[in-house]
Amino acid sequence: MPEPILKIEGLDAHYRDFQALYGVSAQVDQGEVVAIIGANGAGKTTLMRSVAGLLKNRPEAIRWKGQAIGRLRADQVAALGIALVPEGRLLFPSLSVEENLIIGGQIGRKGPWSLDTVYRLFPILKERRNQQSTSLSGGQQQMVAIGRALMSNPELILMDEISLGLAPVIIRQIYEALPGIVGEGMAAVIVEQDIAKALSVTSRVYCLQEGRVALQGLSATLSREEISRAYFGM
Amino acid sequence: MDWVNAILQGTLLGGLYALFAAGLSLIFGVMRLVNIAHGDLIVLAAYLGLTASTALGLHPLVALVLVVPAMFAIGYVLQRGILNRTMGDDILPPLLVTFGLSIIIQNGLLTVYTADPQKLQAGNLETASLSAGGLTVGVLPLIVFITAVAIIGALQWMFYHTALGRAFRATSDRQDIAQLMGLNRAHVFGLAMGLSLAVTAVAGIFLGIRTSFDPAVGGSRLIFGFEAVIIGGLGNLWGTLAGGIVLGVSQALGGQIHPSLQILSGHIVFLVILAVRPRGLFPKMEG
User: Fold this and answer.
1) pTM as predicted
2) Which of A73, A95, A152 faces B184 most closely, judged by CB atoms?
3) Within an 8 Å CB–CB cutoff, is residue A56 touching chain B?
C-alpha cells in the first residue's frame, strides 16, 4: 500500500481560546478524491485552514509526504503543492479576473495548469478576463476561485464549500468540471453540505461532528443511516 | 498677475508636498499603517544627503544614488524587524511604535548632527530661474514638481502593471488569502515600507536643498504629508498629487493675501475639505 501524501494525526486546532478540532486523524492518497461532510460548526473549515497553513498547529499533526508541515506558513505550504479554494471564494476585489488567476500561478510550480487551460475549463472567464472580479456572478466568481487555486499546479486541492450560495444549475456546471480537474492526477478534498453530491464524486468520506471524526468509510458503501447518525449525533 | 504667479508657485510647492505624502499614501494603501515617524524619516534622509555631500563632495542630487537605496534598506529592515510585530487588527500599536520611533530619530539626529540648522548646497541650481510672459519660475521647484509627477506616475504604473503591484493590491485586499498565493506578507510589507522610504529619500533631499532644516522640522512635514493624503483621498496616488497641489496653492494664495496667513490658510482649506468631503476629493482607488 502506498504511503498517503497527506496524513493528519491527532490534530487539535484552536481559535484563540476555543478548541475547534479534537484529535482529528485523516489521510489522502495520491490522486484520491475525499469528501469531508458535517453540520455547520463541525470543524470542516478549520480542518481546511489548518492543512493550508492559515492556522498554526503542532508540526507533526499534519504531514505532507512524510514532512511535518503543521507549523509552516501558508505561503510555504502553498509552495509544497497544496492549494485551498476558500469558503466564500474570497477573490481579490482590486484585481481583475485574469490578475486573480495570474497571482494564483505566481508560485511558479510546473504542471498542466496555465491561463490557457483554466480558460479552456471555464470559457466564460476568458470573456470576462479584464473585468473586476467582484462584478462577476457568484458561480463565475467560484470558477475564478477554483482557477486561481489550479494555477499553482497543486498536487492536492482543498475545496471548501464550493457550491455554497449558488444556483443548482451552476453547481452542476462546476461539478461537471471536476473530473477534468482531478483527472490530471491531482488529489482533492471536497467539503460539501450536499451529502449526495459529496458521495457521488468522491471515493472516501470523513464525517466530522463537533470537532471529531464521527465516521469514515468508502463513499459507495456507507448507508444513509450511518451517515445521518454521524452527521447529527443521534 | 500676482495671483496667477501665486497659483503657479503654489502648484510647484504642491509637488514637494506630494513627495512628502506619496510614501505615506503607499504604506497606508498596502497595509493600513499610519507612520507617525514619516516626517522624521524625511529629515533623516536630508541628513544622510548632507553627510554624503560633505563627506564625499557629491552634489546633493547625485547623493540620491546613495540615499535612496539606503532609505529603502532602512525601510525594509524597520518593517521586518519592528513594525511587522505590531501589525494586527488593532491599529493602535503601530501608531504608538512609530510615535516612539519619531522621538528616537529626532534625538538620534540631535546627538549626531546637533540642533544647528543645516542646508544642502546645490550651487547655481538654487537660484536659477526661467522667465516667460511676466512669470518667473525657479528651476529647482520645477524639477521638484516634475520629479513628483514622475514618481507618482511610476508608482501608479507599478501598482497596476507589475507583479509587485499585484502583490501589493492582493495583500491589501486580503492578507491571509494573499499568503495562500505564496506571498509572504512580512516580505511584501517590507518591500512596501522600503519603497515608501525610497520616495521619502527624494523628498528629504529636495527639502534640504530648498530650505534649511534641523532635527525638529519633521513634524510639520508629516502634517503637510497627511493633509495632502487626506485631501486627495486615502489610498489614491494621483489624488495625493492633487492633494499636495491643493495644499500648496492654498498656502500660496493665503500668503498672497497676507504673509502670515500662508500656513494657516493651508490648514483651513484642509479642514474645510475634511468637513465637506471626509473621504477626500478622489476617494476611490482606480487604475
Assistant:
1) 0.92
2) A73
3) no
> Among A198, A195, A202, A189, which Cα is nearest to A229's?
A195
CA B135 vs CA A2, B104, B244: distances in Å? 83, 44, 22
DSSP letter string, A72-100: S-HHHHHHHTEEEE-TT----TTSBHHHH
d(CA B6, CA A110): 60
How far from chain centre, in Å, is Cα B17?
A: 7
| B268 Cβ under 8 Å from any chain A Cβ | no
Residue A184: band (very low, low, confident or very high) from pLDDT cuts 50, 70, 90: confident
CATH entry, B2-114+137-276, from 1.10.3470, 1.20.120, 1.20.272, 1.25.40: 1.10.3470
The type of residue at A46 is: T
Q: Which of A92, A97, A98 to mutate to test the interface with B (most CBs of B within 10 A)?
A: A92
* Residue A27: CB atoms within 10 Å: 17
**Given an 8 Å threshold on Cβ–Cβ distance, is B174 in contact with A92?**
yes
Exposed / middle / buried, residue A160 (Cβ in 10 Å: 0-12, 13-18, 19+):
buried
Amino acid (1-letter code) at residue A47: L
Closest residue by Cα to residue B3 from B135, B114, B110: B135
The answer to whether the CB of B221 falls within 8 A of the CB of B21 is no
Instruction: Provide the pairing of β-strand A62-64 with A67-68.
Output: antiparallel
Shortest CA distance from A80: residue in chain B = B182
In which element (H, E) is residue B69 found? helix B60-78
Instruction: Break chain B into its structural domains and give their ranges.
Output: 2-114+137-276
Per-residue tens of pLDDT for chain B, all 287 residues: 789 999 999 999 999 999 999 999 999 999 999 999 999 999 999 999 999 999 999 999 999 999 999 999 999 999 999 999 999 888 899 999 999 999 999 999 999 999 999 999 998 998 899 988 888 899 999 999 999 999 999 999 999 999 999 999 999 999 999 999 999 999 999 999 999 999 999 999 999 999 999 999 999 999 999 999 999 988 789 999 999 999 999 999 999 999 999 999 999 999 999 999 988 998 865 43
Concatenating the DSSP letter of every residue in A156-173 gives EEEEESTTTT--HHHHHH
